[in-house]
Amino acid sequence: MSQIDTLPPLREVIARHGLSAKKQLGQNFLLDLNLTSRIARVAGPLQGATVIEVGPGPGGLTRALLAEGAAKVIAIERDERALPALAEIADAYPGRLEIIAADALEIDCGALVAGPAKIISNLPYNIGTELLVRWLSLEPWPAFFDSLTLMFQKEVAERIVARPGEDAYGRLGVLCGWRTTARIAFSVPPSAFTPPPKVTSAVVHLVTRPIDPAIRARDVELITRAAFGQRRKMVRQSLKSTGVPVERLLAAAGLNGDERAETLSVEAFLKMAAALRA
Length: 278
What we know:
- The chain has eleven helices and nine strands.
- By secondary structure, it is α/β, with parallel strands linked by helices.
- Helix 7 packs across helix 11, helix 8 crosses helix 11 and helix 10 crosses helix 11.
């Protein structure tokens, strides 16, 4: 493990501040600064960029983001034990690290930035998917960020990038496939974390893309929830829970009705969402 700055090794920081990971907070710390630097580089050049980081913990990824040239990092941390360690990083990078002691689920991240930002985080496992869905459901679109580089359990990462016909394809794959271009950058073994989780993790990079502003996220959510809620049934049957004439939705998407949700393209769901609004 190489040093990326003059700050102490992360193990020393954790020991000095008593930062044992808390399971109830979904904490698993990355101590290898080579690995955190690799995550930072997945997001692309950071020079001049504003970055939002959720759950920095002792600051391994925070340090990498700053060392890679981020103009400003806004770190949102609900664990008060980590704040002194983060303050030491702020002192080492004057004016470039803003620390917000808060729960990311309870604040408007978009209000923290003046222009397009990047979200780069080793997300706590217990809130990662919920945060992603919130960010990708924002209206209007595009939102306050232009890309997201996030750590998830590998199973969740596979759902994010899944395509029609794949076992992992579902509501999350439709949402991500609609509003972003997503890819899995690399996998991370349990041994890279302290404490090691029971599952393999993966870093996912999502780049936002323009969409038809007439299609609303809540309509896409309604259609996909109905379709995948009974994913083994034919869509004609599963779409009845929308309360809208099903034949109208099927006709809009050019479907027969005997298809199953996991075989439908993202475009088919979007056409049905547009018909739902009409």
